[in-house]
TrEMBL record:
High-level lineage: Eukaryota, Fungi, Dikarya, Basidiomycota, Agaricomycotina
Protein's recorded name: p-loop containing nucleoside triphosphate hydrolase protein
Protein's organism: Gloeophyllum trabeum (strain ATCC 11539 / FP-39264 / Madison 617) (Brown rot fungus)
Chain ranges of the BCS1 N-terminal domain: 64-244
Keyword Hydrolase: yes
Gene Ontology MF: a single term: ATP hydrolysis activity
GO cellular component terms given for this protein: mitochondrial inner membrane
């Protein structure tokens, strides 16, 4: 469509005035000459035709037509250009939030091009905000523990050229307004100079391999963002299963069950049973529920998706959307599943010594939560309704098992219920050994391999499971100390987290840990009595 600018009416007026002036002059002279033979009607018809065929109007119409054609010509030009490009290039676009986008960003961040590029975006989001870009600057000689690492990625709105397997390739990151409450969405556009689409497939394989390079030592964690899209919130080092101390056989049983589930897709399909599995981990705070899930995710090689039911803005529709958007073969975690349906309850009120039902708060008739707008029926539907994702494992945790609705706990939603209790003497002993025991020969070899990989050492540093600092040599002495420690710890009175906290005070001296354990346990008991009296 052609838009007239303000000058055009003036030109039109000028042309008309000239034409009409000329016509009227002609008409006047002819009128004078033949005033007796020409009628006024035929004179105005003549002036109209002379106006219509006047060269000025013709010129004007010509320019108008050409002006209106210009946008179409531009469009045709762009279309031809795009056609020419698309016939020479293989193009792909990646949208932020999609896993493929994360692969590409990791691949780009690791590309040697950015080490020489003069226009880059610098990111320090190392393993906390965006796993995709969490690439350590391997060449940085100053990169040491505790120093924030950085990496380079392409700038937004600039096109960068590079080579991929001998093909010229352009990369352009852009941020576009989605029009949804001003939400900006980032897109990465890639063009490879090639006729063959297999180059793009190769690029994607490469990018995914880079992204998964540290999969053997880390797990990827995802959480919902403000727009209820799954976003990577970073990576965590895998936690070895042997570092979790539970009653004999418990963790091995859960692991075997989950492994069997993942391998039985066909079995489920053949019988028309929804291919989903739910585990309910319940019991005392600090007894290893979260740690076990993290460790199992590592063992199974699955990514973890955290669903926070009590999050502001969470309602039935949002929950349903999140669960149906879970990728196949993933672990979803709903921590404190009771929290969405309880009002005014804090963690302290969940005294494991009391029957949980005594602590259960009244629930509103619809089961609606105080802060959250998730209803019980919404949660039940999200877990196993029509839209619920197949192929996922759901882990739910709670400290208030008996306050949960039976419908939530039934098989099909929560297939296995695993109780976590306060530490037994057996657990205290095993925790002590796991904390100080030098790894046995086979384990040592295994650990050597693990240590080569990224993440393991970090986990050991953070958790205090460091073998090199321990001042005990003969294993028999360690056994004796472990026994002494376990005897000093009262059965089922302290959480494993509390015991771990105590041992952390004696990272390098198990003798002192064992020696002071009895006095510490007494203090703990007194402290608990004081708290109970105060409550
Ligand atoms: N059974 C256990 N074996 C080894 N370590 C444990 C165990 N239980 C707890 N811990 C340690 O205690 C800390 C807290 O554990 P975790 O968060 O897994 O407990 P939780 O049961 O999920 O607690 P909460 O119910 O409060 O969320 C972790 O650092 C973990 O290493």
């Amino acid at each position: 469509m052609v838009q007239m600018d303000s000058a055009q009416p003036n030109i039109l007026g000028f042309l008309l005035a000239n034409t009409i002036g000329a016509s009227s002059a002609n008409a006047t002279s002819s009128h004078n000459a033949t005033s007796t033979s020409t009628s006024p009607a035929s004179a105005s018809a003549a002036s109209f035709f002379s106006l219509l065929f006047s060269p000025a109007l013709f010129e004007y119409a010509k320019w108008m037509l050409m002006g209106s054609l210009i946008p179409y010509l531009q469009q045709i030009g762009t279309w031809l250009y795009e056609k020419a490009l698309s016939s020479m290039f293989v193009s792909a676009s990646f949208t932020e939030g999609d896993a493929a986008y994360d692969w590409m960003m990791t691949w780009l961040a690791k590309h040697p091009k950015w080490r020489r590029a003069r226009q880059v975006e610098v990111t320090t989001r190392h393993g906390c905000n965006d796993g995709a870009r969490a690439v350590p600057d391997d060449d940085d000689p100053h990169a040491e523990a505790g120093v924030t690492k950085f990496s380079y990625i392409p700038c937004v709105s600039s096109t960068q050229w590079m080579f991929f397997r001998g093909h010229w390739m352009s990369v352009c990151r852009s941020k576009d307004n989605t029009g949804w409450y001003g939400k900006m969405e980032e897109t990465l556009r890639v063009r490879i100079l090639s006729w063959d689409q297999r180059v793009l497939t190769a690029l994607l394989h490469d990018a995914r391999a880079h992204y998964d390079a540290d999969k053997h030592s880390t797990i990827h964690i995802y959480a919902a963002d403000g727009d209820n899209e799954w976003r990577s919130v970073g990576k965590r080092p895998k936690r070895p299963l042997r570092s979790i101390v539970l009653a004999p056989g418990v963790k091995e049983d859960v692991l075997a069950d989950a492994r069997e589930f993942l391998a039985s897709k066909e079995w489920y399909n053949d019988r028309g049973i929804p291919f989903r599995r739910g585990y309910l981990l319940y019991g005392a705070p600090g007894s290893g529920k979260t740690s076990l899930i993290q460790s199992l995710a590592g063992e199974l090689g699955l990514n973890v998706y955290i669903i926070t039911l009590s999050r502001a803005g969470m309602d039935d529709a949002t929950l349903c959307q999140l669960i149906s958007n879970l990728p196949d073969q993933s672990i979803a975690i709903m921590e404190d599943i009771d929290a969405a349906f309880t009002q005014g309850i804090n963690r302290e009120s969940a005294d494991p010594a009391k029957p949980a039902s005594a602590a259960a708060p009244p629930r509103s008739p619809q089961g609606e939560a105080g802060g959250s707008r998730v209803t019980l029926s919404g949660l039940l539907n999200a877990i196993d309704g029509v839209g619920a994702q197949e192929g996922r494992i759901l882990f739910a945790t709670t400290n208030k098992y008996h306050s949960l609705d039976p419908a939530l706990c039934r098989p099909g939603r929560m297939d296995k219920h695993i109780e976590f209790r306060l530490a037994s003497r057996y657990q205290a002993r095993e925790l002590f050994l796991a904390f100080y025991e030098p790894p046995r020969k086979r384990e040592r070899e295994e650990r050597e391999k693990e240590k080569e990989r990224e993440g393991q050492e970090k986990w050991e540093r953070d958790s205090g499971f460091e073998e090199k600092l321990v001042d005990v040599s003969p294993p028999s002495e360690l056994d004796e100390l472990a026994e002494q420690f376990a005897t000093a710890i009262p059965e089922r009175e302290c959480s494993m987290a509390t015991l771990q906290g105590y041992l952390m005070q004696y990272k390098t001296s198990p003798r002192d840990a064992a020696l002071n354990a009895a006095a510490w346990a007494m203090e703990q008991r007194e402290e608990q009595k004081r708290r109970a009296a105060g409550a």
